[in-house]
Amino acid sequence: MKFRASGVIPAALMPFTQDMELDLTTFRSHLRDLASVKGVTGICVNGHASEVMSCTEQEQARILTVALEEVGNALPVIGGVYSESSIVAAQHAKQWQQLGANALLVVPPAAFGKGAQLRPEMVMEHYQRIADACDLPLIIFQYAGAQMMAIQTLTNLADTIPSIKAIKDYCGDPVAHEETVRQLQNSHRKVNVLTAHSSWLLQSLALGCEGILSGAGSTVAALQAELFEAMKDSDLPRAREINERLDIPNKAFYHAPMADQHNRMKEAQVLMGRFPHAVVRPPLMKLSTAEIDGIRAALAKAVMLNH
Ligand SMILES: N[C@@H](CC=O)C(=O)O
């Protein structure tokens, strides 16, 4: 299945059983749900939304294999490559290719947050090792805050590593985001920008981003796809209307502490009748009843509850 770095690519959640094991039955039905949404062009697993940091290497391999079995005939599957070690990340890249992944999302190691701006060679080495270990299209993951890479580092990556085809941009800064679109997507070496700015998608898509790769897609992929379509058609009134609808669940998912963003989406899946439980692995903690009630109210207001 050929990966095209465009359109709406949800990052799947990873359901766990009550004893915190992978719940692969629910995962399979989650993947089928996502694949059935009109406008979805791929599915990403083993990203932050899948709680990749708390899954073992064997579990990550299993998650990718199950995703490929379940939806790999219909859509490209993008596997997140995450390790604190560039050497291990490169081993994963090789293994994920052998398992059949169609592209890789390079999840930034925590070390980037302690010096990627001052020592961009860390970033270059991490990506180069991954690129050398496989032949798959790579997606840069630009993260907000301390992990954020300088625009010069992004253009150096694009110029040095031909297999880089896209960037998932979650820089959180509209000025930096616009510059990323300008310098990567609208330059001679075209690297598509897939926005992850789920809470300001309309503004982001107005810059011309070629797609959306977002954890919120796990839960609001249909609305994201409608918004994407409206923006492609330059139908601003329609886009504004969809944006208003998206704003309600987005406000319930994206607020401090941001560590809980996907935790909240899991609770939403339970409230929508899709997941049996919203179990997260520590250090993430179960949300309070008051917060779950707030998510329920938001979903009801957005007409996302069937009951
Ligand atoms: N909020 C973004 C970035 C997360 O890591 C997303 O979920 O895609």
Automatic annotation (TrEMBL):
The organism's place on the tree of life at top rank: Bacteria
Protein family: Belongs to the DapA family.
Pfam family for this entry, one: DHDPS
The name this protein goes by in its record: Dihydrodipicolinate synthase family protein
MF terms (GO), sorted A to Z: 4-hydroxy-tetrahydrodipicolinate synthase activity
Organism name: Comamonas testosteroni (Pseudomonas testosteroni)
Keyword annotations of the record: Lyase
